[in-house]
Amino acid sequence: MSTTLPAILMFIVGLFTLALATLRRVQSGRSSVVLTYGDDAEGFAGKLFRLIVAALVVHLIAVAAFPEAVDAAFGRVPALDMPSIAAVGLVLMAFGGGLTMLSQWAMRHSWKIGIPEKQDAPLVTSGLYVFSRNPIYVGMATALIGTVLAVPNVVSVALTLSSWISISYQIRMEETHVGRAFGEAYRAYCQRVRRWV
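Structure (tokenized):
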């Protein structure tokens, strides 16, 4: 397996997210990135998200550039260290990344990274959002599981577990915000559509 493919897949998703954020800023005049830096729960979640993403990027670049050194430093999870499992991991990374990008695009102007102070966009309940209230996070979680399978070491496992905790926490904060903003319409949506799948 090519050790560069996980980093390339991460780069593609990151580049798409950056391009989409730039496009939405040009279209609306406002940034789609609304992560805060405060000392409250939302600020903590934003800091944790940035830290995990940065660590994942550095890790995948290190795996691509110095695979033997990374293996020597962190070892590999023996039960997962097989070419067929690595191939499944790459497929999951690609599928999860694709789902993340499609879900971001489908939200149109409602898409934000973080929780906006004021809800100024409509509730999205169509397209992929008919199957999951959080298809972006479903895609991210799928890609992270793929990362563990494609790059089976302690760092990948730790980052995936940390991401899972961070995503779960973020979803609950977002649900509280969206519930306040949309009231009964959001509660009815929650009755029809599951949080994950």
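The mean pLDDT is 94. Residues 109 and 145 are 29 Å apart (CA to CA).
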